[in-house]
Amino acid sequence: MTDSEVYFTLLRVSAAQTLRSAGITAAKPSVVDAFTDLLARYLTLLGTTTRNFAESGGRTQAELIDARMAMEHVGLLRPINIFNDPNDDDTEAVDALVEWFRGPQVADMRRVAGYAEKEGQVGKSDEWLGATKKLSEKRNTTV
Amino acid sequence: MSLWNGDTIKDVSESVGVANLSEDVAKNLAMDVEYRIHQVLQEALKFMHHARRTTLGTQDISNALRVLDVEPLYGYESTRPLRFGEASLGQAQPIFYVEDDEVDFEKLINAPLPKVPRDVTFTGHWLAIEGVQPAIPQNPTPSEAARLSETTPKGASSNTTLSIASTLNPTTNETVTIKPLVKHVLSKELQLYFERISTSITDESTPDAVRNAALASLRKDPGLHQLLPYFVQFISEKTTHGLRSLFTLTQMMSLTHALLENDSFFIEPYVSSLIPPILTCLIGKHLGSSSSDPHSQTPAHYALRDLSASLMRLVCKRFGDSSHTLKPRLTRTCLKYFLDPAKPLPTHYGSIIGLAAIGGREAVRVLILPNTKLYEKVIRPEIEDEGPRKSEAEMCLSALVGVLKQLEEEEEGEGGGGGGKGKNGIAPIMPGASAEEVKSQLIGILGELVGEEVWKLRREALVKAVIEAGGTKI
């Protein structure tokens, strides 16, 4: 398997988990592939926009502020107040995002992905995470 | 006009929802479709050429769409092969569709993660060690190697090499094919040289001068290294098949000697192949034909055994240090043959002088001396009975005595200067011991026959050495 195939397959797992947590149990593979493709492009878009903002600021290394501006640019952080007063500490959009992260949707996604939040839940969380860790170790030490 | 059928356009429009489409509209749309596809393909081909590929891929199309500011087509990243199913409309015109069965997410999520490919690395491994290819995973297996060698053109020289080796060794063809990946190319001169030398050495009718010249050339000439394995094989073969002919055996030993003398040979890996012929000529049961005069005092095979023993000494001196097991192995073999009373007497002769040659003074002191008394039981009946084997037994006796002389020889250099020589007739002087006592002590150690002989030699230092060595044993 070439590199890109491995990445795509790994991302497809995440995409499937997201869909599963939304309640969809089955789909055609082409649909899953299209969704994975969308996800990949979206992540790439976020990344390139962040990089663009960083370079506009004369930096080669992206900072948190670049990431936030990229998210606003892309439309992830809403609502955006375009008449932004620099003295006004308007963090409504970021608060909304943080709220979402704490919300039930994400909790369900975590559950599907195997990140058990409750004590009693043992299971594939360890295996899946462990397997990925092992893979990356193998990858890094294969010389 | 255009490649695209009007019917295709109508089908697509129906699937979208536009029910009836007139002919002209369909035709125009077809032309437009063709133009768009051409455009996309052109851009995609540019991407393909720039990437130095000849296979058009989905990535090229995606890039082309990006360049043309068109919405990208999602979902074509996957490399799963598309399976096309057939569905016939009943008009013998099948419609193909992409088979796309629904898949359960649980299966997708719980499926094992893909194997991460290795980074580009490079390592080293042994391709061949001393001409032999080790069977490690990085090397091709023998079946693959055979397939590869079939495709390489066979030069004329390699054929003659194989034929030479096969004519000389009709029974040992395996040695040629064990190493298939090493093609041994011998020049014509070398092949000619080998033939000439081998025939002249083994042919009894060639004059001595020619034979000596051949051996001298082997001894001195550089650049013969490639022939070394063939010579070694030749020696082994002739020795095993020529046991009846003393001449052949002697010639083989001379050949071995010449090979050992040559400085330019790296002979160490062949030492273990040279040892068996030498051992054969040393302790073989029946060397030479049985028609040799049994009553002559020194039949020729004793000379052969002496030559082999001196060769053995040479080999041990040169290679005894580099190989840990060489000397012990040889010593063990000789000792085994010496102590086996069932073996014929000439074998004992050979093993005695062999032991002395391999181990020198120490071997004599430790291995032969303690066994001399016991050995007497073997040779005494032969000598006293005047049987057919008397001469052989006497040879063994003289060998023993000669070997025991070695015990003393080392001491000569220490300062016993003229001590061992010319004391005939003078009674040996031992501190506080009379001649008779010494003699009886000597006989006690060595047994009667050998003891008498040693006493007759009248060598004080030798007697002293024997008594010392015998004394420590008891």
TrEMBL record, chain A:
- Keyword vocabulary terms for this entry: Nucleus, Transcription, Transcription regulation
Tell me where in or outside the cell this protein is found.
Nucleus
- Where is this protein chiefly located? nucleus
An annotated GO cellular component = transcription factor TFIID complex
Domain Bromodomain associated: from-to ranges: 4-80
On whether Transcription is a keyword of this UniProt record, the answer is yes
Gene Ontology MF, one: protein heterodimerization activity
Query: Record's superkingdom?
Result: Eukaryota
Q: What PANTHER family does UniProt report for this protein, alphabetically? A: TRANSCRIPTION INITIATION FACTOR TFIID SUBUNIT 8
Q: What is this protein called?
A: Bromodomain associated domain-containing protein
Which classification does the entry list for the species? Eukaryota, Fungi, Dikarya, Ascomycota, Pezizomycotina
Automatic annotation (TrEMBL), chain B:
GO terms under cellular component: SAGA complex; SLIK (SAGA-like) complex; transcription factor TFIID complex
- Swiss-Prot/TrEMBL keywords: Nucleus, Transcription, Transcription regulation
Question: Where are the bilayer-spanning segments?
Answer: none
Q: Write one Pfam family the protein is assigned to.
A: TAF6_C
| Subcellular location per the Swiss-Prot or TrEMBL entry | Nucleus
GO MF assignments = protein heterodimerization activity; RNA polymerase II general transcription initiation factor activity; transcription coactivator activity
Report the InterPro entries cross-referenced here. Answer: ARM-type_fold, Histone-fold, TAF6, TAF6_C, TAF6_C_sf, TAF_TATA-bd_Histone-like_dom
- Region entry Disordered, spans: 134-162
Q: What is its main location?
A: nucleus
Q: Which SUPFAM superfamilies match?
A: ARM repeat, Histone-fold
- Polar residues compositional bias, start-end: 149-162
Q: Example GO biological process term?
A: chromatin organization
To which protein family does this belong?
Belongs to the TAF6 family.
Q: What is this protein called?
A: TBP-associated factor 6
Name the species this protein comes from: Tuber borchii
